[in-house]
Structure formats: C-alpha cells, structure tokens
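U., I forgot to send this yesterday:
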Amino acid sequence: MKAEEILAGLTAAGEQAISPWNEKLQYEGRIDFDGEEGPVWVFPATYVKLRFRGRSLRAVVTNQCGFWNNYMGFILDGRESKARLKDSGITVITIGDKLEDGEHELCFFKRQDSCHHVTFHGFIGDQNFSLLDPTALPARRIEVYGDSVSAGEVSEAVECCGLPDPEHNGEFSNSYYSYSWLTARRLGARLHDIAQGGAALLDDTGWYKGGLRAEDGTVADRFTGMETIYNKLRYHLYLSEAKEWNFDNYRPHVVIVAIGQNDSNPEDYMAIDYDGEKAIHWRKHYRKFLLTLQRVHPQAHIICTTTILGHNENWDRAIDQVCRELKDDKVHHFLYSKNGCGTPGHIRIPEAEQMAEELSAYIESLGEEIWKTEEMD
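Result:
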C-alpha cells in the first residue's frame, strides 16, 4: 500500500495528509527511500525536520520490533518528548494538539538502533496546516561507525553516571544524547550515525545478533560485526533482507571509527596475548576496514577511537599501532581523558557531553581545511 493510501485511511474530515515525499520535509541519516509505503529508518539519529503553521500534527509510522521496547523521539519548538511504538503495525503519534498560532519547528527522530525498523508514512495536520520552507542543512558532514555508545544506548539513565546499567527495556536509549549527535551539533555538522549496540568489528564476536546468511540461504543466529554492517541500509536479517548502501549519497568530511571494545566477547584475546594469532588477525582486519573506508571516502579524515566505557587498554594500543603503521596524515588516533576507564556502564548524558566536548575540540584542532574538500563540493 502506498503512503498516501495509508494516510487517507487515517485522515478525518477537517484534516489533511502530508506525504513523506513532500519536498519541504528535510531528512537526515542513512534512509531507504525505495518503498512506496514510505522511507524506512534503521539507524539511530535518523530524522525528518519540518517548519509549519498549524494547530495540530500527528505522525504515522509502522514499527517492526526486533527486541527492546521501541520509542520515537520528537522535539517540537525546543521541547523534547518520546512516544512508545506498537511492536508491529501502525502507530499514530500525536506530536502537538491545540498549538498556538504562528510558526513551529519539529524534529522527529529515531531514538534507537536496529533493534527495530520504522517505516515513516507521513504526517496528518489540521485543515489550515501549511509547510514552510526548510532551513538549509549544514555544510559540514560527519559519519560515525560505532556501537551502543555511539547510538546513545541507556544514555538517559542519568542517576547511574559512573555506574553499571539499571534494569531497562529500551526506555533510556536516546540517540539525541549520544556523543555522536552531541558532537555533530557542537560542530554544526550533519550526521550519519552507523551505530549498532553490541557490534564488534568482526562477525562472530561482540554482542549483536542481527543474523548472518548461511551457505544454504537461511539466516544463521550469529553475532554480526561492523565489517558486515558498514555498507548496508538494512542488516537485521530477522526484520528484512539485507540491502546495500550507495556511498555516493553522502560524502562525509570526517569519519569517526569507534569500534573495538565489544570485540572482547566471547574472548578478550587482545588483553590475554597482544602478539597472539587472534590479536594479529584483528589488527589486520582493522587495518583492512580503515583502507576500505578510505577507498569509499578518499576525501575524509578518519578518526579512530573507542570510548570511556571500561575495556582493556590493549584494544586502544592495537588501534594506535594500526594508525601509526598506516603513516597517513588523514588517519588519526584519539583518546578521551577517561578512555576505557570512565564507567562500567553505558555513557549517560553528562558523560556523553564531556566526550563530545573533547572530541569536537580535537576535530577543530585539525583545522578548518578538513571541511573544505574540493572533491565533495
């Protein structure tokens, strides 16, 4: 069913439907625009922004739940809210009701990673609703390849700063407060946040089981790493078929690679034997991953890091070794002041803000020229 048909079935007398294809809607993120039902959102920090006049507004989405409870976030006129989604089927979210006359601005965004997929069908407004021209997107562009910290998982559990995670079921995860999005906002940059909770670099390690395709064509219940995820629009095989991403659709000036701390599961081989076969294998694949990113984004500066989440320092040592061996002035290794020892739990909002302050300062220290790559503009 087309998005317009879905909206028509939910639009009452005195209301009007706003198609997801309306040219005045402003999207950001790695989004699948191919389906007639509407754009499919997989990654955290994916959003649609709009400026409008109107007294009421509702958003219409279909959710596919993989795990956790799933929520969408929205910021209306500077006030942030969230809405719980049904595990499957259509959810209609009231964004605003009985709004004041005048101009309004909305950012409607995906709070979580590929624990769920969302198809955005569009909006429903009141009879006098009108869209205004969007503001221009920033010229600066950032892309992040990361895990749960980059996705903002459990970021809202602020009472647990420096502590293990509380019991939760997705309600504390919010990409808006990830260091990734905080850094992008500090730098005035666009963001594609290719972040998945539990992801390691290599398949069959880490904590994320999005499934891998077996030789007989079935989905194998195995850990899925960033080597499989990085070039996909969709990669959670229990929710949909895998789909490739076209890198020409987004050319970042800065690429942040924040992978490595989940690779210690099921065995922390980098800590056990830094010069062992498994550790050497990982460093070879990390190098290969960086070279792959350089091929698809030759214009970009690549910043390699992990986070302040507790992990053995040998992972950062390994990353530093690979960066030094590449001897490339566009490949950098960055360490936070509390790298690997800041907290045993996920990064909360104040901790993410500190990370974003340090990371954005480092990026700015590289000079204004990193944002002026001729091949991209």
